[in-house]
Amino acid sequence: MAAPSGITRAAAAPAPTGPAYSYDAATELVTVRWDPKDPADTVTTGYREGSCSGPSTADGPCFVRASGPLLDGNSFTFRLAAGRTFHFRVYAENAAHRTTGSAILTVTT
Question: What is d(CA 26, CA 48) in angstroms, rounded to the nearest whole number?
Answer without folding.
Answer: 26
